[in-house]
Amino acid sequence: MSLTQDTPDPIDFTVPGVASRDATAVITVLQDRLNALNDLALTLKHVHWNVVGPQFIAVHTMIDPQVEAVRGMADETAERIAALGGIPLGTPGAIVGQRTWDDYDLNRADAIAHLGALDVVFAGILDSYRRAVTSTGDLDPVTEDMLIGHTRSLEQFHWFVRAHLETPGGRLRTSGAYTEYEGARHAQG
Fold first, then answer.
1. Domain that holds residue 154
2. What is the rounded CA–CA span in Å between residue 86 and residue 148?
3. Residue 51: beta bridge partners?
4. Contact 61, 48 (CB under 8 A)
5. Contact status, residue 107 vs residue 50, Cβ threshold 8 Å
6. Would you say residue 182 lies in a domain?
7. Which stretches make up the Ferritin/DPS domain (predicted)?
8. Structurally, how many domains does the chain consist of?
9. Is 65 domain-assigned?
């Protein structure tokens, strides 16, 4: 047995009613969600520490409850992986080694710039969450239900971010932004 592994070992057990091959597929999806949630919690905390400007206090205090909720989602995800017979990997190396997205690059910046960048971050996370919901539905409805609950909360956090970026006429200032820097520029512009 190796202390490091590139691919998970076949699972010896899973929850009743879920076939081992289905559990393995679900665990793979959940590990990706765990990496995304751990990354999001760290990114949100980074924004919390580095936000400046007139909206500082509003954004600073809005972010901490999101961090705690995302950490709770990560814990629930890791526990589901374990219940399905997998090994949840929550180390920094697992996040960096397995993620398919770039690191958050904004440092000290105006609150609106960070919110514009977070709009892009949340849009990406929500897109991947919806794919995860779809891919787990037929394999494990319990996991699907958990992912739907996470999606609901993440959509609310995204709405909180976007409320700062919406014009009185209902236009989203970050519309058409695909990178964090584009989101930050559009939000300020």
1. 20-188
2. 21
3. 109
4. no
5. yes
6. yes
7. 29-166
8. 1
9. yes
